[in-house]
UniProtKB/TrEMBL annotation:
Protein family membership: Belongs to the iron/manganese superoxide dismutase family.
Keyword entries, A-Z: Metal-binding, Oxidoreductase
InterPro entries the UniProt entry points to: Mn/Fe_SOD (IPR001189), Mn/Fe_SOD_BS (IPR019833), Mn/Fe_SOD_C (IPR019832), Mn/Fe_SOD_N (IPR019831), Mn/Fe_SOD_N_sf (IPR036324), SOD_C_sf (IPR036314)
Keyword Metal-binding: yes
Pfam family, one: Sod_Fe_N
The protein, known as: Superoxide dismutase
Gene source species: Stenotrophomonas oahuensis
């Protein structure tokens, strides 16, 4: 069964002025291309019956790249919302305080990791099996989905994610990203 491009959980103009509709259109074009690439590679194979997350875990090479990017992008969109969530609440706030000190320090560590990545990839807030939170960077199509940690929040660091609005200024893009983070979605991803 082929995969469909998931619908955005908000209108394509809803993240303005932080992320423009033009930027989202370009970004969605890349997401569509990853989904189409996955479908072309799995058509007529036993892999066509797998859910996308299992396909990511079981694939390699160019199929992994396309499947991981399709999964990463869908995950990315679900972690955003217009005007964002004010601040993390309840257990998420407690875990952020325990592992980073406070939200400001989490953002500093996340941004430092994102700005330190040479080239393309992703920066993630993850929860390890022992419930500790950490910031993790993956290169290219890498994803924590293939490891032991649970991804909670992901930020796309490929140039197509920010070039339209911010050219080469990844720091400005990160400032905009924090304004549209959906902390409620992040909290729902926590493991017990």
């Amino acid at each position: 069964m082929p995969f469909d491009l998931p619908r955005l959980p908000f209108d394509r103009t809803a993240l303005q002025p932080h992320l423009s509709a033009a930027s989202l259109d370009l970004h969605l074009g890349h997401h569509r291309a990853y989904v189409e690439s996955v479908n072309a590679r799995i058509d007529g194979t036993e892999l066509a019956e797998l859910p996308l997350d299992d396909l990511v875990r079981q694939s390699q090479g160019t199929l992994f790249d396309a499947a991981a990017q399709a999964w990463n992008h869908a995950f990315f969109w679900e972690g955003l919302r217009p005007r964002g969530s004010a601040e993390p609440q309840a257990r998420l706030a407690e875990l952020i305080g325990r592992h980073f000190g406070d939200l400001r320090r989490l953002r500093e560590e996340f941004d430092r990791a994102a700005l330190g990545l040479f080239g393309s990839g992703w920066v993630w807030l993850v929860q390890h099996p022992n419930s500790t939170l950490a910031v993790q960077v993956t290169r290219n199509a890498g994803t924590p989905l293939v490891g032991q940690s649970t991804p909670l929040l992901g930020c796309d660091l490929w140039e197509h994610a920010y070039y339209t609005d911010f050219q080469n200024d990844r720091a400005k893009y990160l400032e905009a990203f924090w304004k549209v983070v959906n902390w409620d979605a992040v909290a729902m991803r926590l493991r017990d």
